[in-house]
C-alpha cells in the first residue's frame, strides 16, 4: 500500500510545526510506503521555512507544494493531483495526530470493501467552556471540531470530517475533486467541502468505515470561544447546506427564492431565543435562528444571481482551475 497524507496550510506556521511533529512521529509498518505532502496555500508567514525544515530533516518523507490560488478546495485538489499514494489521507495544520493514527485509519483499505474511512476527532480543551456553551453539544462539535458518531468500529453512514479522513485515489478519479464553491477562501468562510465529498460517495453507494482508534486531537483555539465566531460559523454552515442539498423536496411556496417554511422557522426560533432564560438554551436558540437566516440568505443569493446551485466539480476541471 502507498499512502499520501495531504496537509493544506495557510498562515499558521506555529501550529503547522506542531502538526508536522506529530506526523513525523507516526508509527507505520515498514511494508507501507507513505509520505506527507504539505500544500502551502499562498501563505505570507514562515510556512515555507517550517515546511522546508521538515523536508530537510525527513528526506523522502515530507514534500512541499505551493498553490497560489487561495482557497482550501484549490489546495486540496492540488494535493490530490500531486500526491503519489493510492490511498489519500487528510489532516489539518492545527491538529495533533496519534502515533497510530495513519495505520488505524488506513487499514480498512487492505481489502476492497471500503472506499473511504474516517476516525475520531477529540476536542482538546485547554480551558473551561464559557457559561453559554455546552461542551458536549452539537453546536460545540462543529466550530470546535469533534467527531465520534458511534462507539465501535464499523460502517459509517455519514461523511467523515476533513482533518481525519482517507479515500482511495480512484474515488477522486471517479467522482471528481472537492467543490471550489465550498471551503474557506479570501471572500468566504463557507465550509463543507470535506463532508460534501463524503456525502457524494455515500449517495453513489460507496462504503465508508469508521475506526475510533484513528485519533486526531483538535485543540480549542481561544479566539473561537466567543459568540460571534459561533454565530458566523453556523450561519455559513447553513449556507453550505443549501448549496449542497438545496431546499426541502416538494417545496412549492417561495418568496424571492426563499421557501416560506424557512421564514416561519426563523420567526419561531427568534421567539424562543427572546424568551429563553437559561443562558445555554438561549444561545442555542439564537444559533438556530442564525442558521435559518443563513439558509434564507443563500436562497435569496441564488435567486438574485439567477443561477442554480453549483454541481460537482470534476477533478480534471478542479486541477485546471487550480493551475491558472
Measured between the Cα atoms of the first and last residue, the distance is 33 Å
Q: Give the quaternary arrangement of the chains.
A: single chain
Spell out the helices and strands N to C.
EHEHEHEEHEHEEHHEHEEHHH
Please write the CATH class name of the largest domain.
Alpha Beta
Question: Which band does the percent of strand residues land in?
Answer: 15-25%
User: Could you please say which CATH topology of the largest domain applies here?
Assistant: Spore Coat Polysaccharide Biosynthesis Protein SpsA, Chain A
Q: Can you tell me the overall shape?
A: globular
Main sheet summary: 9 strands, mixed
Structural class designation = alpha/beta
| Rg estimate, integer Å | 20 Å
Summarize the structure.
By secondary structure, this protein is α/β, with parallel strands linked by helices. It is 42% helix and 19% strand.
Amino acid at each position: 500500500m502507498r499512502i499520501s497524507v495531504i496537509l493544506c496550510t495557510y498562515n499558521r506556521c506555529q501550529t503547522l510545526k506542531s502538526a508536522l511533529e506529530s506526523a513525523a512521529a507516526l508509527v507505520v509498518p515498514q511494508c507501507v510506503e507513505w509520505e506527507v505532502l504539505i500544500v502551502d496555500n499562498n501563505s505570507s508567514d514562515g510556512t515555507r521555512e517550517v515546511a522546508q525544515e521538515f523536508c530537510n530533516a525527513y528526506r523522502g518523507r515530507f514534500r512541499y507544494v505551493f498553490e497560489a490560488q487561495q482557497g482550501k478546495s484549490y489546495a486540496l485538489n492540488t494535493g490530490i493531483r500531486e500526491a503519489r499514494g493510492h490511498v489519500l489521507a487528510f489532516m489539518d495544520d492545527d491538529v495533533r495526530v496519534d502515533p497510530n493514527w495513519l495505520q488505524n485509519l488506513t487499514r480498512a483499505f487492505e481489502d476492497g470493501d471500503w472506499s473511504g474511512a474516517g476516525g475520531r476527532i477529540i476536542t482538546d480543551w485547554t480551558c473551561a467552556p464559557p457559561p453559554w456553551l455546552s461542551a458536549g453539544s452539537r453546536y460545540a462539535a462543529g466550530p470546535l471540531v469533534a467527531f465520534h458518531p458511534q462507539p465501535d468500529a464499523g460502517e459509517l453512514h455519514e461523511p467523515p470530517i476533513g482533518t481525519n479522513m482517507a479515500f482511495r485515489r480512484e474515488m477522486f478519479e471517479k467522482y471528481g475533486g472537492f467543490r471550489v464553491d465550498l471551503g474557506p477562501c479570501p471572500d468566504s468562510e463557507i465550509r463543507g467541502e470535506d463532508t460534501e465529498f463524503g456525502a457524494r460517495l455515500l449517495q453513489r453507494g460507496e462504503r465508508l468505515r469508521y475506526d475510533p482508534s484513528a485519533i486526531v486531537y483538535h485543540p480549542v483555539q481561544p479566539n473561537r470561544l466567543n459568540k460571534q465566531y459561533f454565530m458566523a460559523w453556523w450561519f455559513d454552515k447553513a449556507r453550505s447546506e443549501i448549496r449542497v442539498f438545496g431546499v426541502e423536496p416538494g417545496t412549492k411556496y417561495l418568496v424571492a427564492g426563499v421557501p416560506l417554511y424557512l421564514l416561519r422557522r426563523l420567526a419561531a426560533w427568534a421567539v424562543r431565543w427572546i424568551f429563553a432564560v437559561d443562558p445555554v438554551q438561549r444561545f442555542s436558540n439564537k444559533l438556530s435562528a442564525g442558521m435559518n437566516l443563513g439558509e434564507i440568505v443563500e436562497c435569496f443569493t441564488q435567486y438574485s444571481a439567477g443561477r442554480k446551485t453549483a454541481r460537482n466539480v470534476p477533478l480534471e476541471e478542479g486541477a485546471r482551475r487550480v493551475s491558472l
